[in-house]
Write a structure and sequence with these properties.
mainly alpha; Na+/H+ antiporter like fold; globular; disordered C terminus; single chain; 416 residues; 20 helices
Length: 416
Protein backbone atom coordinates (compact mmCIF):
# COMPACT_ATOMS: atom_id res chain seq x y z
CA UNK A 1 0.00 0.00 0.00
CA UNK A 2 2.84 2.42 0.82
CA UNK A 3 4.40 1.88 -2.59
CA UNK A 4 1.03 2.53 -4.25
CA UNK A 5 0.62 5.77 -2.29
CA UNK A 6 4.09 6.87 -3.38
CA UNK A 7 3.23 6.21 -7.03
CA UNK A 8 -0.09 8.03 -6.65
CA UNK A 9 1.30 11.20 -5.06
CA UNK A 10 4.41 11.47 -7.26
CA UNK A 11 2.64 10.88 -10.58
CA UNK A 12 -0.41 12.99 -9.64
CA UNK A 13 1.81 15.91 -8.59
CA UNK A 14 3.87 15.60 -11.78
CA UNK A 15 0.87 15.42 -14.13
CA UNK A 16 -0.96 18.09 -12.15
CA UNK A 17 2.03 20.39 -12.56
CA UNK A 18 2.19 19.69 -16.31
CA UNK A 19 -1.52 20.42 -16.84
CA UNK A 20 -1.29 23.51 -14.64
CA UNK A 21 1.52 24.85 -16.85
CA UNK A 22 -0.71 24.21 -19.85
CA UNK A 23 -3.39 26.38 -18.14
CA UNK A 24 -5.59 23.29 -17.72
CA UNK A 25 -7.09 21.99 -14.44
CA UNK A 26 -4.67 19.90 -12.39
CA UNK A 27 -7.47 17.43 -11.67
CA UNK A 28 -7.11 16.14 -15.25
CA UNK A 29 -3.64 14.94 -14.29
CA UNK A 30 -5.03 13.34 -11.14
CA UNK A 31 -7.75 11.53 -13.09
CA UNK A 32 -5.16 10.33 -15.61
CA UNK A 33 -2.97 9.11 -12.75
CA UNK A 34 -5.81 6.93 -11.50
CA UNK A 35 -6.52 5.60 -15.00
CA UNK A 36 -2.85 4.80 -15.69
CA UNK A 37 -2.09 3.24 -12.31
CA UNK A 38 -5.50 1.60 -11.90
CA UNK A 39 -6.55 -2.03 -12.41
CA UNK A 40 -7.55 -1.47 -16.06
CA UNK A 41 -4.09 -0.24 -17.11
CA UNK A 42 -0.77 -0.77 -15.25
CA UNK A 43 -2.48 -2.19 -12.14
CA UNK A 44 0.02 -0.57 -9.75
CA UNK A 45 -2.49 0.40 -7.05
CA UNK A 46 -2.59 -2.15 -4.25
CA UNK A 47 -5.88 -4.05 -3.99
CA UNK A 48 -6.15 -3.18 -0.30
CA UNK A 49 -6.14 0.52 -1.26
CA UNK A 50 -8.75 -0.02 -3.95
CA UNK A 51 -10.97 -1.89 -1.49
CA UNK A 52 -11.24 1.22 0.71
CA UNK A 53 -11.45 3.71 -2.17
CA UNK A 54 -15.07 4.56 -1.30
CA UNK A 55 -14.06 5.47 2.25
CA UNK A 56 -11.09 7.49 0.98
CA UNK A 57 -13.35 9.45 -1.37
CA UNK A 58 -15.74 10.15 1.52
CA UNK A 59 -12.88 11.46 3.67
CA UNK A 60 -11.86 13.83 0.88
CA UNK A 61 -15.45 15.03 0.46
CA UNK A 62 -15.77 15.66 4.20
CA UNK A 63 -12.65 17.83 4.18
CA UNK A 64 -13.76 19.99 1.26
CA UNK A 65 -17.34 20.33 2.56
CA UNK A 66 -16.09 21.36 6.00
CA UNK A 67 -13.90 23.96 4.35
CA UNK A 68 -16.91 25.10 2.34
CA UNK A 69 -19.08 25.36 5.44
CA UNK A 70 -16.44 27.37 7.30
CA UNK A 71 -16.54 29.91 4.44
CA UNK A 72 -20.31 29.92 3.88
CA UNK A 73 -21.81 33.03 5.47
CA UNK A 74 -25.53 32.44 5.98
CA UNK A 75 -26.24 36.15 5.53
CA UNK A 76 -24.71 36.02 2.05
CA UNK A 77 -26.79 32.95 1.22
CA UNK A 78 -29.99 34.69 2.33
CA UNK A 79 -29.36 37.33 -0.33
CA UNK A 80 -29.70 34.64 -3.00
CA UNK A 81 -32.93 33.05 -1.73
CA UNK A 82 -35.17 31.40 -4.32
CA UNK A 83 -32.59 30.53 -7.03
CA UNK A 84 -30.47 28.61 -4.51
CA UNK A 85 -33.48 26.44 -3.68
CA UNK A 86 -34.45 25.94 -7.32
CA UNK A 87 -30.89 25.06 -8.38
CA UNK A 88 -30.85 22.24 -5.84
CA UNK A 89 -33.29 20.19 -7.94
CA UNK A 90 -34.49 21.91 -11.16
CA UNK A 91 -31.29 21.45 -13.25
CA UNK A 92 -31.15 17.78 -12.27
CA UNK A 93 -34.79 17.29 -13.29
CA UNK A 94 -34.13 18.98 -16.64
CA UNK A 95 -31.12 16.73 -17.27
CA UNK A 96 -32.95 13.53 -16.32
CA UNK A 97 -35.87 14.62 -18.51
CA UNK A 98 -33.47 15.24 -21.39
CA UNK A 99 -31.98 11.78 -20.95
CA UNK A 100 -35.44 10.15 -20.92
CA UNK A 101 -36.31 12.04 -24.08
CA UNK A 102 -33.12 11.39 -26.06
CA UNK A 103 -31.61 8.10 -24.82
CA UNK A 104 -34.38 5.71 -26.01
CA UNK A 105 -34.19 6.76 -29.70
CA UNK A 106 -30.39 7.23 -29.71
CA UNK A 107 -29.31 4.18 -27.69
CA UNK A 108 -32.35 1.91 -27.87
CA UNK A 109 -32.83 1.73 -24.10
CA UNK A 110 -36.17 1.68 -22.30
CA UNK A 111 -37.64 4.70 -20.55
CA UNK A 112 -36.85 3.40 -17.06
CA UNK A 113 -33.28 2.57 -18.12
CA UNK A 114 -32.90 6.10 -19.48
CA UNK A 115 -34.22 7.44 -16.15
CA UNK A 116 -31.61 5.41 -14.24
CA UNK A 117 -28.88 6.67 -16.56
CA UNK A 118 -30.09 10.24 -16.12
CA UNK A 119 -30.17 9.99 -12.33
CA UNK A 120 -26.58 8.68 -12.31
CA UNK A 121 -25.14 11.50 -14.40
CA UNK A 122 -27.37 14.36 -13.14
CA UNK A 123 -25.44 15.15 -9.95
CA UNK A 124 -22.95 18.02 -9.93
CA UNK A 125 -19.57 17.37 -8.30
CA UNK A 126 -18.90 19.28 -5.03
CA UNK A 127 -15.28 18.15 -5.19
CA UNK A 128 -14.80 20.11 -8.42
CA UNK A 129 -16.97 23.17 -7.89
CA UNK A 130 -16.47 23.83 -4.16
CA UNK A 131 -12.71 24.65 -4.40
CA UNK A 132 -13.42 26.91 -7.38
CA UNK A 133 -16.24 28.74 -5.57
CA UNK A 134 -14.12 29.08 -2.42
CA UNK A 135 -11.41 30.77 -4.46
CA UNK A 136 -13.93 33.25 -5.86
CA UNK A 137 -15.26 33.93 -2.37
CA UNK A 138 -11.75 34.55 -1.02
CA UNK A 139 -11.12 37.03 -3.85
CA UNK A 140 -14.58 38.64 -3.37
CA UNK A 141 -15.56 37.81 -6.95
CA UNK A 142 -19.32 37.48 -7.48
CA UNK A 143 -19.95 37.53 -3.74
CA UNK A 144 -22.02 40.75 -3.71
CA UNK A 145 -24.88 38.81 -5.27
CA UNK A 146 -23.93 35.54 -3.54
CA UNK A 147 -23.17 33.64 -6.76
CA UNK A 148 -20.39 31.34 -5.45
CA UNK A 149 -22.36 30.73 -2.24
CA UNK A 150 -25.48 29.84 -4.24
CA UNK A 151 -23.64 27.38 -6.47
CA UNK A 152 -21.77 25.77 -3.58
CA UNK A 153 -24.82 25.28 -1.34
CA UNK A 154 -27.22 24.20 -4.09
CA UNK A 155 -24.68 21.70 -5.42
CA UNK A 156 -24.58 19.77 -2.14
CA UNK A 157 -28.39 19.50 -1.97
CA UNK A 158 -28.49 18.55 -5.66
CA UNK A 159 -26.56 15.37 -4.82
CA UNK A 160 -29.06 14.35 -2.14
CA UNK A 161 -31.97 14.87 -4.52
CA UNK A 162 -30.39 12.86 -7.35
CA UNK A 163 -29.40 9.90 -5.16
CA UNK A 164 -32.98 9.57 -3.88
CA UNK A 165 -34.27 9.56 -7.48
CA UNK A 166 -31.66 6.96 -8.42
CA UNK A 167 -32.86 4.70 -5.61
CA UNK A 168 -36.48 5.10 -6.73
CA UNK A 169 -35.72 4.34 -10.40
CA UNK A 170 -33.59 1.25 -9.66
CA UNK A 171 -36.35 -0.04 -7.36
CA UNK A 172 -38.81 0.25 -10.24
CA UNK A 173 -36.39 -1.47 -12.63
CA UNK A 174 -36.03 -4.38 -10.22
CA UNK A 175 -39.80 -4.81 -10.14
CA UNK A 176 -40.42 -3.08 -6.84
CA UNK A 177 -42.87 -0.34 -6.02
CA UNK A 178 -42.05 3.28 -5.24
CA UNK A 179 -44.36 4.97 -2.78
CA UNK A 180 -44.90 8.66 -2.13
CA UNK A 181 -42.84 8.27 1.02
CA UNK A 182 -39.79 7.58 -1.14
CA UNK A 183 -39.88 11.14 -2.44
CA UNK A 184 -40.77 12.58 0.97
CA UNK A 185 -37.29 11.40 1.97
CA UNK A 186 -35.75 14.28 -0.02
CA UNK A 187 -37.01 17.23 2.08
CA UNK A 188 -36.81 15.16 5.29
CA UNK A 189 -33.14 14.28 4.71
CA UNK A 190 -32.37 17.94 3.97
CA UNK A 191 -34.13 19.20 7.12
CA UNK A 192 -32.64 16.55 9.42
CA UNK A 193 -29.17 17.04 7.95
CA UNK A 194 -29.34 20.80 8.47
CA UNK A 195 -30.75 20.41 11.99
CA UNK A 196 -28.05 17.95 13.04
CA UNK A 197 -25.24 20.06 11.58
CA UNK A 198 -26.52 23.28 13.18
CA UNK A 199 -27.00 21.64 16.59
CA UNK A 200 -23.55 20.01 16.68
CA UNK A 201 -21.90 23.16 15.28
CA UNK A 202 -23.48 25.27 18.04
CA UNK A 203 -22.53 22.77 20.76
CA UNK A 204 -18.92 22.59 19.53
CA UNK A 205 -18.64 26.38 19.38
CA UNK A 206 -19.91 26.64 22.96
CA UNK A 207 -17.49 23.94 24.11
CA UNK A 208 -14.49 25.47 22.35
CA UNK A 209 -15.24 28.90 23.84
CA UNK A 210 -15.35 27.41 27.35
CA UNK A 211 -12.37 25.01 27.20
CA UNK A 212 -9.02 26.07 25.78
CA UNK A 213 -7.16 23.67 23.47
CA UNK A 214 -4.96 23.82 20.40
CA UNK A 215 -6.63 24.56 17.08
CA UNK A 216 -5.26 21.27 15.70
CA UNK A 217 -7.19 19.38 18.40
CA UNK A 218 -10.34 21.32 17.55
CA UNK A 219 -9.86 20.42 13.89
CA UNK A 220 -9.63 16.71 14.75
CA UNK A 221 -12.78 16.91 16.87
CA UNK A 222 -14.70 18.64 14.06
CA UNK A 223 -13.55 16.08 11.48
CA UNK A 224 -14.49 13.22 13.82
CA UNK A 225 -18.05 14.52 14.17
CA UNK A 226 -18.25 14.89 10.39
CA UNK A 227 -17.30 11.22 9.99
CA UNK A 228 -19.93 10.29 12.59
CA UNK A 229 -22.57 12.14 10.52
CA UNK A 230 -21.89 9.83 7.57
CA UNK A 231 -22.02 6.78 9.85
CA UNK A 232 -25.28 8.00 11.40
CA UNK A 233 -26.75 8.44 7.92
CA UNK A 234 -26.16 4.75 7.12
CA UNK A 235 -27.41 3.60 10.55
CA UNK A 236 -30.66 5.58 10.30
CA UNK A 237 -31.26 4.89 6.62
CA UNK A 238 -34.15 2.49 7.24
CA UNK A 239 -35.80 4.69 9.87
CA UNK A 240 -35.03 8.37 9.29
CA UNK A 241 -33.62 9.95 6.12
CA UNK A 242 -30.56 12.07 6.88
CA UNK A 243 -28.09 13.85 4.62
CA UNK A 244 -24.71 13.39 6.28
CA UNK A 245 -22.84 15.57 3.76
CA UNK A 246 -25.31 18.42 4.23
CA UNK A 247 -24.89 18.09 8.00
CA UNK A 248 -21.13 18.43 7.52
CA UNK A 249 -21.48 21.70 5.61
CA UNK A 250 -24.12 23.02 8.06
CA UNK A 251 -21.81 22.31 11.00
CA UNK A 252 -19.01 24.34 9.39
CA UNK A 253 -21.37 27.22 8.54
CA UNK A 254 -22.72 27.26 12.13
CA UNK A 255 -19.20 27.45 13.58
CA UNK A 256 -18.55 30.43 11.28
CA UNK A 257 -21.72 32.13 12.54
CA UNK A 258 -21.22 31.41 16.25
CA UNK A 259 -17.42 31.47 16.54
CA UNK A 260 -16.04 33.36 13.49
CA UNK A 261 -12.56 33.83 14.99
CA UNK A 262 -12.10 30.06 15.23
CA UNK A 263 -13.52 29.47 11.75
CA UNK A 264 -11.02 31.91 10.21
CA UNK A 265 -8.15 30.26 12.12
CA UNK A 266 -8.85 26.64 11.22
CA UNK A 267 -10.03 27.16 7.63
CA UNK A 268 -6.42 27.38 6.32
CA UNK A 269 -5.68 24.07 8.04
CA UNK A 270 -8.46 22.41 6.02
CA UNK A 271 -6.97 23.99 2.90
CA UNK A 272 -3.69 22.22 3.64
CA UNK A 273 -5.43 18.90 4.30
CA UNK A 274 -7.25 19.26 0.97
CA UNK A 275 -3.92 19.22 -0.90
CA UNK A 276 -3.51 15.49 -0.20
CA UNK A 277 -7.24 14.71 -0.04
CA UNK A 278 -7.86 16.14 -3.53
CA UNK A 279 -5.18 13.89 -5.03
CA UNK A 280 -6.60 10.80 -3.33
CA UNK A 281 -10.16 11.67 -4.38
CA UNK A 282 -9.54 12.14 -8.09
CA UNK A 283 -6.97 9.37 -8.42
CA UNK A 284 -9.45 6.95 -6.85
CA UNK A 285 -12.14 8.21 -9.23
CA UNK A 286 -9.79 7.69 -12.16
CA UNK A 287 -8.96 4.18 -10.94
CA UNK A 288 -12.62 3.18 -11.43
CA UNK A 289 -12.46 4.07 -15.13
CA UNK A 290 -12.21 1.20 -17.62
CA UNK A 291 -10.87 3.28 -20.49
CA UNK A 292 -11.28 0.49 -23.08
CA UNK A 293 -14.91 0.06 -22.13
CA UNK A 294 -15.41 3.80 -22.32
CA UNK A 295 -13.84 4.00 -25.77
CA UNK A 296 -16.25 1.35 -27.07
CA UNK A 297 -19.21 3.55 -26.24
CA UNK A 298 -18.69 5.51 -29.43
CA UNK A 299 -19.60 9.03 -30.47
CA UNK A 300 -23.33 8.47 -29.93
CA UNK A 301 -22.94 8.26 -26.14
CA UNK A 302 -20.66 11.31 -26.09
CA UNK A 303 -23.15 13.27 -28.18
CA UNK A 304 -25.96 12.24 -25.82
CA UNK A 305 -24.05 13.41 -22.74
CA UNK A 306 -23.32 16.77 -24.35
CA UNK A 307 -26.95 17.20 -25.41
CA UNK A 308 -28.34 16.50 -21.94
CA UNK A 309 -25.83 18.99 -20.55
CA UNK A 310 -27.71 21.61 -22.56
CA UNK A 311 -30.89 20.54 -20.75
CA UNK A 312 -29.05 20.97 -17.43
CA UNK A 313 -27.85 24.44 -18.38
CA UNK A 314 -31.40 25.35 -19.39
CA UNK A 315 -32.50 24.25 -15.89
CA UNK A 316 -29.96 26.62 -14.31
CA UNK A 317 -31.12 29.44 -16.59
CA UNK A 318 -34.72 28.77 -15.54
CA UNK A 319 -33.74 28.67 -11.85
CA UNK A 320 -32.08 32.08 -12.04
CA UNK A 321 -34.92 33.76 -13.97
CA UNK A 322 -36.39 36.98 -12.54
CA UNK A 323 -33.40 37.58 -10.27
CA UNK A 324 -30.91 40.44 -10.00
CA UNK A 325 -28.32 38.36 -11.81
CA UNK A 326 -27.17 39.71 -15.17
CA UNK A 327 -27.11 37.54 -18.28
CA UNK A 328 -23.36 37.09 -17.87
CA UNK A 329 -23.77 35.98 -14.26
CA UNK A 330 -26.50 33.55 -15.23
CA UNK A 331 -24.22 32.15 -17.93
CA UNK A 332 -21.44 31.66 -15.38
CA UNK A 333 -23.87 29.79 -13.10
CA UNK A 334 -24.75 27.52 -16.01
CA UNK A 335 -21.06 26.81 -16.69
CA UNK A 336 -20.28 26.20 -13.00
CA UNK A 337 -22.95 23.49 -12.85
CA UNK A 338 -21.29 21.36 -15.54
CA UNK A 339 -18.66 19.27 -13.65
CA UNK A 340 -19.49 15.73 -12.56
CA UNK A 341 -17.24 13.22 -10.80
CA UNK A 342 -17.86 12.01 -7.26
CA UNK A 343 -21.47 10.80 -7.32
CA UNK A 344 -20.95 9.20 -10.74
CA UNK A 345 -17.94 7.30 -9.40
CA UNK A 346 -19.89 6.26 -6.29
CA UNK A 347 -23.10 4.95 -7.90
CA UNK A 348 -22.23 4.43 -11.58
CA UNK A 349 -21.43 0.75 -11.11
CA UNK A 350 -24.41 -0.07 -8.86
CA UNK A 351 -26.90 -0.95 -11.65
CA UNK A 352 -24.38 -3.48 -12.98
CA UNK A 353 -23.89 -4.92 -9.49
CA UNK A 354 -27.69 -5.17 -9.15
CA UNK A 355 -27.83 -7.31 -12.28
CA UNK A 356 -29.80 -4.79 -14.34
CA UNK A 357 -29.55 -5.24 -18.09
CA UNK A 358 -28.63 -1.57 -18.49
CA UNK A 359 -25.71 -1.90 -16.04
CA UNK A 360 -22.92 -1.70 -18.62
CA UNK A 361 -24.37 1.23 -20.51
CA UNK A 362 -25.04 3.16 -17.27
CA UNK A 363 -21.46 2.54 -16.12
CA UNK A 364 -20.18 3.75 -19.48
CA UNK A 365 -22.27 6.91 -19.23
CA UNK A 366 -20.93 7.55 -15.72
CA UNK A 367 -17.32 7.05 -16.79
CA UNK A 368 -17.62 9.29 -19.85
CA UNK A 369 -19.48 11.94 -17.84
CA UNK A 370 -16.50 12.11 -15.48
CA UNK A 371 -13.91 12.16 -18.25
CA UNK A 372 -15.74 14.83 -20.27
CA UNK A 373 -17.41 17.15 -17.78
CA UNK A 374 -14.95 17.28 -14.85
CA UNK A 375 -12.05 18.75 -16.83
CA UNK A 376 -14.31 20.67 -19.23
CA UNK A 377 -16.31 22.28 -16.42
CA UNK A 378 -13.26 23.13 -14.31
CA UNK A 379 -11.48 24.64 -17.32
CA UNK A 380 -14.58 26.60 -18.36
CA UNK A 381 -14.92 28.09 -14.85
CA UNK A 382 -11.27 29.18 -14.91
CA UNK A 383 -11.63 30.64 -18.37
CA UNK A 384 -14.93 32.47 -17.89
CA UNK A 385 -15.07 33.98 -14.41
CA UNK A 386 -13.06 37.11 -15.31
CA UNK A 387 -15.28 37.87 -18.28
CA UNK A 388 -18.60 36.97 -16.68
CA UNK A 389 -18.26 37.95 -13.02
CA UNK A 390 -15.70 40.74 -12.96
CA UNK A 391 -16.29 44.25 -14.30
CA UNK A 392 -13.74 45.49 -16.83
CA UNK A 393 -12.26 48.02 -14.42
CA UNK A 394 -11.89 45.30 -11.76
CA UNK A 395 -10.23 42.79 -14.08
CA UNK A 396 -6.72 44.10 -13.54
CA UNK A 397 -4.89 42.28 -10.79
CA UNK A 398 -7.25 39.29 -10.73
CA UNK A 399 -5.16 36.20 -11.23
CA UNK A 400 -5.99 32.87 -12.83
CA UNK A 401 -7.73 30.42 -10.49
CA UNK A 402 -5.08 27.90 -9.39
CA UNK A 403 -6.01 24.59 -11.00
CA UNK A 404 -6.02 22.90 -7.63
CA UNK A 405 -7.61 25.98 -5.99
CA UNK A 406 -5.76 25.45 -2.72
CA UNK A 407 -2.11 26.02 -3.38
CA UNK A 408 -0.59 22.75 -4.59
CA UNK A 409 0.96 24.25 -7.69
CA UNK A 410 0.83 28.00 -7.25
CA UNK A 411 -0.94 29.72 -4.40
CA UNK A 412 0.93 29.69 -1.10
CA UNK A 413 -0.28 29.98 2.47
CA UNK A 414 1.67 31.29 5.42
CA UNK A 415 2.16 28.76 8.20
CA UNK A 416 0.46 29.76 11.39
Amino acid sequence: MLTSLAYIFLLALLLGYVFNKLKLPALIGMLLTGIVLGPFALNLIDSSLLSISTNLRQIALVIILLRAGLALDINDLKKVGRPAVLMSFVPALFEIGGMMLLAPPLLGVSLIEAAIMGSVIAAVSPAVIVPKMLFLMEKKIGTKKGIPQMIMAAGSVDDVFVIVLFTAFTTLALGGEVSTSSFVQIPVSIVTGLALGILVGWLLSSYFKKYHMRDSIKLLIIISFAFLFLTLESWLKAYLPLSGLLAVMAMGATILQTYPVLAHRISPKFSKLWIAAEIILFVMVGATVDIQFALKAGPMMIALLLLVLLFRMAGVYFSTAKTKLTQKERLFSMIAYIPKATVQAAIGSLPLAMGLSCGNIVLTAAVLAILITAPMGAFAIDLSYKKLLVDKQENEGIEHIPSDSVGVFGETHKDE
